[in-house]
Amino acid sequence: MPKVIYYVASSLDGFIATEDNRLDWLLNFGFEAFQDHYDRFMGDVGAVVMGARTYRWLRAEQPEGWEYTQPCWVLAHREDPAPPAADIRFASGNVRAVLTEARDAAGERNVWVVGGGNVAAQFAQTGLLDELWITYMPVALGSGRRLLPVSGPTPPMQLIAATSFNNGAVELRYAVV
Length: 177
What we know:
It is a single chain. The protein is an alpha/beta fold. It has 5 helices and 10 strands. Strands 5-4-3-6-1-7-10-9 form an 8-stranded mixed sheet. A two-stranded antiparallel sheet has the order 2-8. A hairpin with a 5-residue loop joins strand 9 and strand 10. 28% of the residues are buried.
């Protein structure tokens, strides 16, 4: 059965970006060590959900392109310009309705909650998140955008896999039970 997965990189102290939404700390590690792993993950993704900040960051980084071929829902209070030929759908309100549409579009493939942490927290708090795939990078930020800023305790999670990378990063995969 397809899953809703929050797949993200985090600092050791639980931040996915700096306060000003920068990812220099993450990009310094490069992508080579993670590319095969990422490609396998993406092969099972049929739809993508992200927040407006993540969307705007991606657009600023790739002003002329868009890397996702899957339909993408952007949780936002307003629509932003979309790249040509990209399947971008802006939505606001209940994440349950967004997930229903995303699951229908994904078919037998997974839905990737790209981020940010606030979007993932909405899915977690409504019981809609099936797994968390967190790649912890060997760096601490001290402050920034939190990994999963929930308002209270989540249900227990069970470690289902761990992958270590040569650069010191470790991916932990958890199932929400």
